[in-house]
Amino acid sequence: MEKIKKSIITKKIKNYKINRKIKRTYQPKAGDVAIFKILSIGKHKAIQGINGNNTYIFPGDLIMATFGTRYASNQFEGYVPDKYYSRYQILGQGGVVGILKSMHEKFKDIGATQVRLMGYAVDENNQVINTKYYDETPVNFNPFKKWSFPIYLSLGAGMDSGKTTTAAFVSRALMQQKKKVAYLKLTGTVYAKDCSFVRDCGADKAIDFSYCGYPSTYLCQTEEILDLFENLLQKIAPDNPDAVIVEIADGLLQRETKALINYKPFMQLIDQTFLSCGDSLSVKSGIEILEKIGKKPVLLSGLFTTSPLMVKEVQAITDIPVFTIEDFMDKTKFSQVFLPVKPEEKLTVNDF
């Protein structure tokens, strides 16, 4: 078989065989590894290779990717297929393939990149290889564990509202104060860009759910995401960070985000929240949502800060500090907001 271009989510997969016989009968799960042939190029002209760089793809190329889901309000909605199809779609550049259900209007003309299933990657026992916790032993979420570092949560009103940029510049501000920072992206669809950006801004370590083999977290149960959170924290704990910044993808109303922020054992671990929004009205709604769960944000940022008029609108309705990118570099302003104090309240079994 000709050269196979591997996507970043399959970077750990080395020893495998290709089983073509089961491609019509096997029911795939999220994380199952397969070989696909590129039929036509749409939105995705490249996949992220195993080193994180773009690997450009062309009709006739073979790629190694995984089946998975995607929830991206500004891009694609897609799912793991429930039966065999003659063609599938690339849902995410990190190597997520599935059946496209809907897309943002801006992609209507170009559509999705189309692929054909050639066969599944199987191990020596002829079992389909799955990337989730591949070659790892996962641990369960422990809400009673006391971590040695404060944990900060970067939330947003929606996709592309500025959550990653806020996390990145908080990291940079802390780096300038000689603090060691770790960044965790807990939910989303595999794509190395966010981790690379936050790392370049100043985080000593930046990892996401794909480090545990998850191609995406859409439709995962809350318990599964909490276990994922525990495993990611354990990966960064040996580095002894002074602060951990956690980002949750998409917006406050998205399925997994909504479940997590309303789950007290998770939010009890969070010391402070940052809220990023695209406009002034979403700031107002976001603050109200977070105040109801007792996690009023300590700072506001995001795309709305590029508009001086929207900044004035926000400042007229709240006393929460508004941070532009330049403000994060203001040591005095940042220090007044960033108060890493652990909550005194302890969890009990009644909180579950």
What can be said about this structure in brief?
With 352 residues, the protein is α/β, with parallel strands linked by helices. It contains 8 helices and 17 strands. Strands 14-13-15-12-16-17 form a 6-stranded parallel sheet, sandwiched between helices.
- Beta-strand percent range: 15-25%
Mean pLDDT: 94
Strand order of the largest sheet: 14-13-15-12-16-17
Show unreliable segments. 341-350
Looking at the structure, the CATH topology of the largest domain is Rossmann fold
Give a quick account of the main beta sheet: strands, pairing sense, barrel closure: 6 strands, parallel
Secondary structure category: alpha/beta
The appropriate CATH architecture of the largest domain is: 3-Layer(aba) Sandwich
Number of helices: 8
Number of domains: 2
Task: Give an overview of the whole structure.
This protein is α/β, with parallel strands linked by helices and 352 residues long. It has 2 domains: 4-122, no CATH class; 151-351, P-loop containing nucleotide triphosphate hydrolases (Rossmann fold, 3-Layer(aba) Sandwich). It is 22% helix and 23% strand. The protein is built from 8 helices and 17 strands. The chain has helices spanning 163-176, 193-201, 222-236, 255-261, 264-267, 280-292, 308-315, 331-337; strands at 4-6, 17-19, 33-40, 46-48, 54-56, 62-67, 70-71, 76-79, 88-92, 96-103, 114-122, 151-156, 181-185, 205-208, 243-247, 272-276, 299-301. The strands form 3 sheets. A 6-stranded parallel sheet has the order 14-13-15-12-16-17, sandwiched between helices. Strands 3-6-10-9-11 form a 5-stranded mixed β-barrel.
